[in-house]
Input
Amino acid sequence: MGNHAPYTVPPQEVPPVPAIPTRPRRRWWRALAWALPTVVLLVGALGLGTYLYVLSHISLSSGETVPRKRADVYAWPLRMVDRLNVLIIGVDVTLDSKRRVVNVARADTLALVTFDPERERIAVMSIPRDTRAQIPGHGETKVNASYAYGGPALTIKTVEQLAGVKIDAYVKLGPESFAKFIDAIGGIDVDVEKDMKYTDSWAGFTINLKKGLQHLNGQQATGYIRFRHDEMGDIGRVERQRKVLVALLKKLKDPSTVMASPQLLQAFAQHTQTNLTSYELMALGIFALRTRDHPMEMQTLPGTFAPSYWEPDGPKVRALVADVFYGVTLKDLAGLPVEIINGSGNAAVGQRVAARLTAMGFRSVRVRTAQTTVQVTTIVDRTGRKGLGRMVAVALGRAIVTREPSTGGPSITVLVARDAARTFSGSFPLLGTPE
Output
């Protein structure tokens, strides 16, 4: 180990959370560039005619470039070659004592979307707004409070720590975005499962729907997905969101929707904010069109009801996240030998890393001490599967990943460096907290 050469890796393996713009884009061509692909991101696919209409009206700035930290997710022209995880944040409206809108909002809807070119699929994991979570700097509370405390940046960090998934980008939808979009496509058909009647005189909205197949306008559809005043609470609400997404997808496949393209663009150009570039959104739109014949996979963060909370089920969350966001199973993890070489100078750190990986599902983990200390924690992945190295890197808080051919020895080697003592902590509780 004394002559061990430091590992290097391209920077895209463990990308940092993208910088978040303080203001939404305002130029008309940028609005056109990301509005309709955002719709694609939400519902999985759009009709080819609609996409071609948008493409013909897009004008990209000659000076615009893809951020270096995400550049290798794409290959020219507009083709995805690596996974991208995007957090959808739908915010509500908060009123003060005089019923005035104040600049504090909660995340009314949270959905983590993964675009996976390796398996050619789009998958969505809905996160109930009442999910118990640790919000950095604010303690344990409902996950939807993260937006009120720190906007998109803190919401991203909270969801990353909750699920153990690195988030590459976000899309924030204002409270009026959804209703305007539904109206722009002429409404949707939904089989309402029961009578729903509720009036919120303070917020100024009424839900009054009858059981059966209904054609819903924007306001009615918004009421349908917001309704949570029954025994299922927020979980029933998440299921209704799924039904609406299915209805949206069906409507968007209708060729007549092409005629509504200008209205769609206008609806999503307003009250929508994202840190994805127009290039990236176009690439996501093209990818969604390529996978439009594959059903979108929709899941809910596993858990159970608890007083005032949706309590995440750690083992089930780990299994779901491993499959949906890393393309592996817990059986895969259990069968892979892992070697931890502790070069941190602190024996306890190596044992904590081993405890974390064991809690994640690795069953063959051994630890040995390096001959010298090293400076940067590095993961050597010999499995030939992109997701495994990335999964370990995220679980350890910060690490670089390099890939090597299999040598017949350990499938994964974790070279634990001095920086692990600072970066490795119990910040991903559902992946297993080190003793």
Residues 1-68 have pLDDT under 50 and may be disordered. DSSP finds 13 helices and 23 strands in the chain.
